[in-house]
From TrEMBL:
Protein name (database record): Class II aldolase/adducin N-terminal domain-containing protein
Protein origin, superkingdom: Bacteria
GO MF annotations, alphabetized: actin filament binding
Source species taxonomy: Bacteria, Pseudomonadati, Pseudomonadota, Alphaproteobacteria, Hyphomicrobiales
Residues of the Class II aldolase/adducin N-terminal domain: 22-204
């Protein structure tokens, strides 16, 4: 990923910060509506400082379906004393997202959740995602696989390990755990999460047939992945459409 941190210093721009809060709140609500959430767990974050260390995150144990823009906490990845506050964030969210934002300032938005098909993929002995169709090929060359699951990420070591595992990938399949998606914007991250869950569903359905898979050659997979680059901007149109749906159903996410 290119280092885009220099253009994302939002703390002095109330309008841009407000828009980011609304987009992130929308991502929470949509994730709940799509059934990708996990009770009152999982976490989404978005950096607001140039160095990526100050970021927005959902408050501890607030259901995705209720989150509003004003609910999002501003946290500092260099301030471990945040866990001593009465409104301390969830420990596993702080551990993972704090470590990733400290280590990778170019990751402006990080969505971590447990969608059913993508998490089922993460349960396989080999949780990689071979290019068997256009959607799966979208992630060719940008998807990482972590097989070092160390339990619920409540300690610093596990957070730092996951930050290293992310590397320069856009998507990380977290073995025995779930998935994380990184992008410069909420819309782009949500679009990758959407297509990742679709891709996992397609792949698992193909596996369930018991028939041999038709896996693309490396050359064809690369050509298809490169072809997706032309359509990356569609993420914004799709996300705006989804927000319009939310506005009709329950616009309180904007509050």
């Amino acid at each position: 990923m290119p280092d885009t941190a220099a253009v994302f210093d939002l703390e002095g721009d109330a309008g841009a910060l407000g828009a980011l809060r609304i987009d992130l709140a929308a991502a929470f609500r949509l994730t709940a509506r799509f059934g990708w959430h996990e009770s009152v767990g999982n976490h989404f974050t978005a950096s607001i400082s140039r160095d990526g260390r100050r970021f927005l995150m959902n408050p501890r144990w607030r259901h995705f379906g209720e989150i509003r823009a004003s609910d999002l906490q501003v946290l500092d990845a260099d301030d471990p004393d945040v866990m001593l506050r009465s409104d301390a964030p969830d420990r596993s969210g702080w551990t993972i997202h704090g470590a990733v934002h400290r280590t990778h300032p170019h990751i402006r938005v990080l969505l971590h959740c447990h969608p059913p098909h993508a998490t089922a993929l993460a349960c396989l002995k080999d949780p990689s995602l071979p290019p068997v169709d256009q959607n799966t090929a979208r992630f060719y060359g940008c998807l990482g696989v972590d097989l070092g699951f160390g339990g619920i990420a409540n300690d610093t070591e596990e957070g730092e390990r996951l930050a290293v595992a992310f590397g320069d990938h856009r998507v990380l399949i977290m073995g025995n755990h779930g998935v994380s998606v990184a992008a410069p914007t909420v819309a782009e991250a949500f679009e990758d999460l959407y297509f990742l869950e679709r891709s996992a569903q397609i792949y698992l359905l193909a596996l369930s047939s018991g028939q041999p898979l038709s896996v693309m050659s490396d050359a064809l997979a690369r050509k298809t992945a490169d072809g997706w680059l032309y359509y990356r901007a569609q993420a914004f149109e799709h996300f705006e459409h989804l927000k319009r749906q939310l506005d009709q159903l329950d616009p309180s996410y904007r509050d």
